[in-house]
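Possible regression after last week's pipeline update?

I re-ran a chain I had predicted before the update to compare outputs. Posting the input and the new output here so someone can diff against the archived version. Not blocking, just want to make sure nothing changed silently.
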Amino acid sequence: MWPLPDVSALILALNPAVDAEWRVERVEWEEKNTILSERRWAGGKGVNVARWLHHLGGKPRLLLPLGGQPGAELARWLRAEKLPAKIIPLREPTRVDVIVTTAGSRQLRFNPPGPRLSRGEWNGILRAAEQNLASARLLVLSGSLPRGLPVTAYAKLIRLAHRFDVKTLLDCDGPAFAAAIKARPFLVKPNEHELGQWWRKPLRSEAELVCAARALSEQTRGWVLVSRGAKHGLLVNCVERFQCFALPPRVKPRNTVGAGDALLAAVAQQVERGAQPKEWLCWSTAVGTAATQYPPGQLPALSQITTNSGQV
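New output (post-update):
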């Protein structure tokens, strides 16, 4: 089944995970906490993007390293959802992320650092990426870098995508983000906190938010989409002299795990379809909002996604 034709996006999930949600009545510190129920599913940011893009009607391919029993479990979930995936075998086991959800919908999240990749495993990922970029329209890089990879790993992949004239969508933070934007990805999707980290000072107003987003666009020469939860999302491009806010549909969130990944998948879908940038922003904020209305890992019916957002 690999490779497949007519692919909208090659999605690299470099640090995937099995996600496990434990539901409890409440969290009692220094005491035993009874787990009322547990759910498990294929997770990690890149995998979440792929699941959402497939759900929205796209044709994603996943490229991901997996190891140990958690890796085998994650691969079974992908097969069950019929998500095409190229797996790079790892010596060390894939991580298991734990989400603790209380009866009041408050959440604690525990994410292990994950396996340490060897140089040979990283070279295998690079070879697989190069082999499959020729038939992809987009490259999505989402999530943290696993241990063992250089901080410039995403930058190297973006430059590789440039060789194939493939647009890259980037969602990460910290030093990997700072290194990657120098390679000029087509679009970056920081949230408000991550943008402030890059800007190196708090964003206390929308004017400061716009200033930081425009400065980031000046550096990448591309699109910057800032996700902000229930507040106006922002899309800017200094080269195109474009700036647009969109207010997501008003809802009471049940869960915020994976909302940013859903948003990025919706952007990828719209870019691949050739939609106008305003449509990228409105549709992606709507999809991200819809993700907050369901338990972690569950995908809503497409009919439940509404776009009653306001543009500025």
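Follow-up from reviewer: compared with the archived run. Confidence is low (pLDDT under 50) at residues 1-5, 308-312. Marking as no regression found.
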